[in-house]
Amino acid sequence: MDPACFHICGDSPAKVKDAKQKLLDLINDEQYSHTISDSSILSFSPADRQQIAAIQKKLGVSIKTDNKNGEASIIIEGLNKDVLKAHTEIDRMLKKVKDEQGMKQKLELTSNLVEWQYQPQGLQFHSFDLLTNYQLEQAMENNQPNIKVMIRGQAYTVTLPKGPATDGKGNTLQIRRLDKLKGWNTRVHRSPESVQGHMQSNHYQD
């Protein structure tokens, strides 16, 4: 906000003082400070911080980030209406960060439990990326008959639960799903010889 200069004139010093006080009261009434406390602030990316700087410039408010004892907060100061707008935009940013963190946890958890793979013609099986792995598992849990995914930049329709994956030209890829939890349980309860044979024959659902 650009600074403003006021010149107050009156019949007496007392009236000037009274007018000055009323003006200060009006200014103070319009000033507002709001604090947002959220641990997700620590997860803001450089792009997020640049966006906050842009909000500060656009709305003419003061935005300060504080981090004491691992507790992060953002302090917004300015005119009531501008502070409210800044708070709304930053709150939206925090929601996006939380959604991304939640999705990342889901992807990692799913990858720790199951691993979906595809086999290009004449090659070994390859693991899907974490997001596609999660989408395939969710589709199977929801009893979807098929799901569209991207494999090496090409769109494929995967028939669940055992494949194949078929592209728009009718080319197919084999699909398989490794249940890591069952594999771990097998290694605990079986001898090394029987585990090896079991892994070769039963770990993958063809």
Automatic annotation (TrEMBL):
Q: Which domain of life is it from?
A: Eukaryota
What residue spans carry the region label Disordered? 187-206
The Mono-ADP-ribosyltransferase PARP14 WWE domain, residue ranges: 111-180
Chief location category: nucleus
Q: Where in the cell is it found?
A: Nucleus
Which positions, given as ranges, span the membrane? none
Task: Output one GO MF annotation.
Answer: transcription corepressor activity
What keywords does the record list, in alphabetical order? Glycosyltransferase, NAD, Nucleus, Transferase
Q: What processes does the entry annotate via GO biological process terms?
A: negative regulation of gene expression; protein poly-ADP-ribosylation
Q: Where is the PARP14-like eighth type I KH domain?
A: 31-98
Fetch the SUPFAM superfamilies from UniProt.
WWE domain
The name this protein carries in UniProt is: WWE domain-containing protein
Biased composition range(s): Polar residues: 193-206
